[in-house]
Design brief:
204 residues, 2 domains, alpha+beta, single chain
Amino acid sequence: MPFNDVSDPELITHSAAMVVAFTPEVYAYLMSLFPTPESYAELHARLERGYPGFLKGEPEGVKAFEEDREAVKQFLNMLSGLARSAAIKDPTMPQKLGLVRLPAKNPSKKVILTQPHGFRIIYDALGNLFATVSKVQGAKGYQVWLCEGDPNVEGNWKLITSATNSRDIMLPNINRTTNNWLRIRAIRGRVTGPWSNFVSLPQA
């Protein structure tokens, strides 16, 4: 609390300033900023009635609902702050206003994707190319990249396909007149895992 640790002379000074500032007019104005039980109940009823129109996308309904939504948020924040202040005198005030603290969300665990193992290229009877790799725990998909030049130069690599499965990932047509290199990594949303080892795809 801002005044818990002030000295007695400082406390007297602050209190004297409050006596001057805290006039009946200021008190009345302060109270006028808060909703009455009747005005808040009316606002809430409008919010409930306007929700169907908002969902339908009716222009007038959307505008009215958004205005009421902001007013409800504003009053809830004001009443919540008032209840917390009043809790200095009566700790049960937040509960009396139904302002029970919501349980804190557990922070989501950071996703760590490991390096794929067992990456290899297989052919079917028609000569189509497929990529196969061991499944990576936590992965939601896989990206296969191709390099037609020096595999140690990052700029030579390009994405050629993505898949949600780790087995039999069909590869697009690849220029087999030159040596190619392939690699794969696991993905989960915006999280990407480390690259697999390179796999060489010799000229056909």
